[in-house]
Design brief:
Blueprint: H1 2-17, H2 30-39, H3 46-61, H4 65-72
C-alpha cells in the first residue's frame, strides 16, 4: 500500500518537472552552432604535437615500426 503511494507521488513529481519529449525546438540550433564555431579556432593541444613527433622519430630511428603503425591505422 505504501509503495503504491510512493510510486504515485514519484509519477506525479516527474510529470510536473519533466517536459514532454515530443516538443518542437524553441529555436533553430544551427545559427548558434555557427557562432560558436566562429568564436575561436580549434587549437591543437601540445600532447597531439608531441605524439606526432614521437611517431615521426620512431619512423626515422626504427624503420621496422612502419608496418606496426600501418597495422594500427
Amino acid at each position: 500500500m505504501n509503495d503504491q503511494k510512493d510510486d504515485d507521488k514519484i509519477r506525479q513529481l516527474l510529470k510536473q518537472n519533466i517536459r514532454p519529449v515530443n516538443q518542437e525546438l524553441e529555436s533553430d540550433l544551427w545559427p548558434q552552432m555557427l557562432r560558436r564555431l566562429e568564436e575561436r579556432p580549434a587549437a591543437v593541444p601540445w600532447f597531439d604535437w608531441a605524439l606526432g613527433a614521437v611517431v615521426v622519430l620512431s619512423i626515422i630511428w626504427v624503420p621496422s615500426t612502419i608496418p606496426m603503425l600501418l597495422y594500427h591505422l
